Each structure stands twice: as C-alpha cells, then as structure tokens.
Amino acid sequence: DTSCNQLLSSLADPSKCVQVSIPSVSK
C-alpha cells in the first residue's frame, strides 16, 4: 500500500508500517 510507504517515510518506523501492511498484503 502506498499509504504505508508515506507513513513509514514520515514516522520512519517500519514496525508500525509493517503491522498495517501485513493485513493489506494478505488480501
């Protein structure tokens, strides 16, 4: 998800991005 990419860049926290990305990628 591009949203995760932007958020990751902003927060610089892969951990948070991963948690949100996993469910998105699953689908």
Count the helices. How many?
2
Low-confidence stretches: none
Tell me the series of helices and strands, N- to C-terminal: HH
What is the rounded distance between the termini?
11 Å
Instruction: Please outline the major beta sheet.
Output: none
Over all CA atoms, what is the radius of gyration?
8 Å
Organism: Dictyostelium discoideum
Protein name: SHEATHIN 62
Break the fold down into its secondary structure elements and pairings.
Layout: H1 2-11, H2 14-26
Helix pairs in contact: 1-2
List keywords for this structure.
27 residues; mainly alpha; 2 helices; 0% strand; elongated
Task: Characterise this structure.
The protein contains 2 helices and no strands. By secondary structure, the protein is mainly alpha-helical. It has one domain. Helix 1 runs antiparallel to helix 2. The longest helix has 13 residues. The protein starts with a helix and ends with a helix. The mean pLDDT is 58.
